[in-house]
């Protein structure tokens, strides 16, 4: 089994795909390396959050995804 990484909202356009898979385990540094420089630069900003296994991480740099986990990259929400 692998880790599923989901790109939501404008991150999907930037990544050029809706999702990708990664080998476990996956930490913050591994995620940044995997997604490429453009996406990594955006992820490093304060406005993007991560969810792992259905829980939004308070500190995204503490990512520790294991086999079967889903990591969602959450852009800022807008609306009215």
UniProtKB/TrEMBL annotation:
InterPro entries membership: Beta-grasp_dom_sf (IPR012675), Mopterin_synth/thiamin_S_b (IPR016155), ThiS/MoaD-like (IPR003749)
Extent of the signal sequence: none
Protein name in the entry: MoaD/ThiS family protein
Species the sequence originates in: Parerythrobacter lacustris
Lineage: Bacteria, Pseudomonadati, Pseudomonadota, Alphaproteobacteria, Sphingomonadales
């Amino acid at each position: 089994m692998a880790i599923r990484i989901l790109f939501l909202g404008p991150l999907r356009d930037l990544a050029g795909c809706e999702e990708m898979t990664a080998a476990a385990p996956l930490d913050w540094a591994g995620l940044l390396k995997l997604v490429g420089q453009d996406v990594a630069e955006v992820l490093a900003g304060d406005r993007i959050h991560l969810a792992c296994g259905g829980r939004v991480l308070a500190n995204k740099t503490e990512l520790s995804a294991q086999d079967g986990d889903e990591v969602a990259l959450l852009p800022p929400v807008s609306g009215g």
